[in-house]
């Protein structure tokens, strides 16, 4: 599809389709139906307004973006499969920081790379990136795992984990189980290694720590879900090493809103230091995926508009965040192709649409927040190789402007 919506759906025009879908949304179920109808029209409006050039777009939405910074989720491993490895990844990070003005960077430490030999933690694979981030004074977010760190397949277990009794597919990984025990042991060793190598003064500059990525979402590799008690205990361990850092827990769009809320209530009851904005909900926004595109009607909505029947809306989540005292960020804002859906990451209009949807419907406009670009690695590769198109340059320009680096 060259457009976010089809020009025609059979004999039905786009406008007619939106009207029919909106009417259906009102019939869906009370407040939920109202939300779907409202968000479908907001989605349509955002898509229309994203057609503007960067200057007009920013003038029209100056209030929307006044408290929004652009950051990135950065994985050095994106260079490893087909290129020269980590030595090529560091220039990519430098480019994102120094050319685009991105200072809020999320970096994941994968278990399989930091403890390839059981009981021996080696930070060598990530040392150049950590050194650079600390040296530049970046607002670093460390995704510590241990079981899940971002980027497919998410569960980056070391080879020796085959010696551990793994849960069956579809199980919940519970605290005290063999895998949870091995992960907890590694997590403590990782925190000790970070403290020993960098010292508490350097670690105090880490803005955010994240244990596990999307812990309550059943990833397609093992279809595991992580137990709340297990996650809460890893948060407590991370807090001991990073007492000044905020704590991030991510949700697959709206799908994990309920479990994350329950975790936050539990954490704030255990640790008063996590109240008043020390906890962050990370919203992962992937609007163009083959899975979503496989559903006949849902394919025309984004994950803000529709998740599943009965799930909390983004507006409800913002109200809850103000009431309970936690923050919200967009941890993964899709700007990268996914399979045959090549527009994200290659279309400036799609990029503007993603930013506008997230800023308007996910974030609290009254509070400083961040949208972390998902796909910055591919953008860096294109820019450094001289393969960036005019569309890419427009996306780069927009990030510079939003971060005041233009």
List the defining traits of the structure above.
406 residues; alpha/beta; TIM Barrel; eight-stranded parallel beta barrel; two-stranded antiparallel sheet
Question: How would you characterize the overall build of this protein?
Answer:
- With 406 residues, this protein is of the alpha/beta class.
- The protein has one domain (67-402): Alpha-Beta Barrel (TIM Barrel), CATH 3.20.20.
- Helices cover 43% and strands 15% of the residues.
- The protein has 14 helices and twelve strands.
- The chain has helices spanning 14-28, 30-49, 54-60, 86-98, 111-114, 127-136, 178-203, 228-241, 257-270, 290-293, 314-324, 348-361, 376-384, 390-402, and strands at 8-9, 12-13, 68-74, 104-108, 139-145, 172-173, 208-211, 225-226, 246-252, 279-285, 327-334, 369-374.
- It has an eight-stranded parallel β-barrel, surrounded by five helices. Strands 1-2 form a two-stranded antiparallel sheet.
- A hairpin with a 2-residue loop joins strand 1 and strand 2 (12-13).
- Helix 7 (178-203) packs parallel to helix 8 (228-241).
- The longest helix has 26 residues, at 178-203.
- It is globular, with a radius of gyration of 21 Å.
- The model is unreliable at 6-12 (pLDDT under 50).
